[in-house]
């Protein structure tokens, strides 16, 4: 039974300055998102940014992770030159993770590239997985060396099965599934299972969860309880999880105070 006591936050440096003490006091999970929100940072003083975050987290006993760049990037690009760019960005993400002591790196699902999402990858899945391997092989090898877990997040996916197949195809404990419950909630309008079902179907491959709310019309990143997601079902599945996934509340900066209050409320009632 997962007590959810490690549940923490996704932050960039300005938010970390506001909530570092809260994260440290509870030894909570934290995910640094500077290089995905500001991808130009990777061509600038990213080490300085990483060092500032690491200093704020000095003494933190919880798990630290990093969200890799994702804008305009797909690990299953057909063009080999694009794959090289994606690969280099992910490897820099791992360098950032090493600088801050990170043990997970979030990347996005490739399963929006081939055709219409409702085709459910009937004919394309093996090719998509092979393209993802072509991009990710050196990234996975580097992650294994660092003791860092690559977690692959659902985005426009309407079925957990292709993502499970992709994660399992690496046959590595350093590649795991990430479920963003807000994304699953939105895609439910296109026939995807509800968010709780995604968590259940992830099974022993679940390594990471993004927790955010919305009204199923847009990726609003509201604090839990501010949208229409079925939180009792999500929390029930999380408590039943046997894999101790990293639990990251991922909200807009203006929702941060409400998100922290929601997490504190969970702790007070269990």
Key terms:
single chain; 270 residues; alpha/beta; TIM Barrel; 44% helix
User: What is the averaged pLDDT score?
Assistant: 94
Widest sheet, order of strands? 1-2-3-4-5-6-7-8
Strand content: 5-15%
**Which structural category do the helix and sheet elements fall into?**
alpha/beta
Q: How many E strands?
A: 8
Q: Span between N and C termini?
A: 12 Å
Q: Please give the domain count.
A: 1
What is the string of SSEs from the N terminus onward?
EHEHHEHEHEHEHHEHEH
Q: Could you tell me the radius of gyration in angstroms?
A: 17 Å
- Name the poorly predicted regions: none
Q: Do you know the CATH topology?
A: TIM Barrel
Note the main sheet: 8 strands, parallel, barrel
Into which percent range does the helicity of residues fall? 40-55%
Q: What is the overall shape?
A: globular
Number of helices: 10
* CATH-defined architecture: Alpha-Beta Barrel
CATH domain class: Alpha Beta
């Amino acid at each position: 039974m997962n007590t959810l006591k490690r549940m923490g936050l996704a932050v960039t440096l300005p938010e970390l300055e506001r909530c570092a003490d809260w994260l440290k006091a509870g030894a909570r999970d934290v995910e640094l998102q500077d290089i995905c929100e500001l991808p130009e940072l990777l061509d600038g003083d990213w080490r300085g940014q990483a060092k500032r975050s690491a200093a704020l987290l000095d003494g933190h006993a919880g798990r630290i992770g990093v969200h890799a760049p994702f804008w305009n990037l797909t690990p299953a690009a057909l063009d080999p030159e694009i794959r090289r760019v994606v690969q280099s960005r992910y490897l820099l993400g791992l360098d950032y993770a090493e600088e801050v002591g990170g043990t997970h790196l979030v990347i996005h699902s490739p399963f929006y590239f081939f055709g219409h999402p409702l085709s459910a990858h009937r004919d394309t899945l093996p090719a998509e997985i092979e393209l993802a391997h072509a991009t990710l092989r050196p990234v996975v090898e580097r992650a294994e060396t660092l003791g860092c877990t690559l977690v692959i997040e659902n985005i426009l996916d309407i079925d957990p099965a292709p993502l499970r197949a992709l994660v399992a195809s690496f046959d590595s404990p350093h590649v795991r599934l990430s479920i963003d419950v807000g994304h699953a909630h939105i895609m439910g309008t296109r026939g995807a299972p509800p968010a709780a079902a995604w968590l259940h179907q992830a099974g022993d491959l679940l390594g990471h969860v993004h927790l955010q709310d919305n009204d199923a019309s847009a990726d609003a990143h509201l604090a839990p309880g501010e949208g229409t997601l079925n939180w009792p079902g999500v929390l029930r599945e999380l408590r039943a999880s046997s894999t101790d996934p990293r639990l990251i509340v991922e909200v807009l900066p203006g929702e941060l105070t409400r998100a922290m209050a929601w997490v504190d409320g969970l702790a007070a009632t269990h």
